Amino acid sequence: MKSQREILTPQMLRYDDFDDRAETRYLPYLMYFHRADYRSATINTDRLGFRISHGATERGSVANPPQGPVRLLAGSSTPFGIGATDDGATMASRLWSRYAPSVPWLNFAGRSHNSMQELLLFLMHRELVPEIDEIVVFSGLNDLALSRLPDAQRGDHGGFFNCGEYFDRMEELRASHRKAKRGFGRRAAGPGDEPHVVPPLADRIAYAVDLTARHLAALRLLSGPTGARITYVLQPLATWVRESGSPEEKAVFGELDDISNFWELYGDIATLETGRRYADALRVACEAQDVRFLDMSPVLAESVTGNDWLYVDRAHFTDHGTEITSRLLAESLGLS
Length: 336
Known about the structure:
Organism: Streptomyces nanshensis
Largest sheet: 5 strands, parallel
Number of domains: 1
Helix content: 40-55%
CATH architecture: 3-Layer(aba) Sandwich
Mean pLDDT: 94
InterPro entries: SGNH_hydro_sf
Structural class: alpha/beta
Protein name: Inducer of phenazine A
Number of helices: 15
Radius of gyration: 20 Å
Distance between the termini: 46 Å
Shape: globular
CATH superfamily: SGNH hydrolase
């Protein structure tokens, strides 16, 4: 018997294959990135792993950019387009082909990336896109979600997804090199040695905002010579937009809740109140750096009804959700 997810969002089976952990592509410094030269009816990537964007008459990607200036849509899995039925239905493609087509848009997003990884992705591939007109960072959820990790895993630059596996493997490697030493005491504590208490929500919001501000400051320095304008858009988690979704969302979300621990891990950040508190703090941080800021959740909430099917899960859009969000993004930012 088919699940509601398979019936309502069959494209997600292709994303499951794309995200196959057995095929994870580990990269120095960045930790991981998308599978390169991936081909399917749903998703296609270039030789570097960036998703291909569609304009009205042409296509492009970071490895194969069009001539002249471009606009970059950066961030994590939502702007990458998890949930879209094909490459032409992603946010970068809808902006390029319809809502802000005066300059080509390239998909510069990284699946499951935090703000540090978003910054590193730009640093590592900056030379491939010499003329940049605009950078829109559509992000924010992952830094807040990862703020619950222990200090030892977050380090100075923020935790990343599946970092527990990384630290476990590194400890195994260290242990293989470790020799018994007399009189020098026990080894230093490792990331998993101390019991972890999740910090209070207010502290986690402050932590995520501080990380974002630091990484935006670095992005401004790196992009400064191009003259590109930077805008930070707080992505709209489904529960930051409205408390109850469409009938299709209820069916899929209920099914996902039965097989995941979403509410146990993220229930406190998934409320409307948390979304507004986080947005208010990010707005102040962006204004201090002269970076435009947009909280997408209330903009989207004011433009949809309870029957609009926006999400394939609580973070990623349907094609309809992407279409509405792309239009509202272009209108809100005055992009043509």
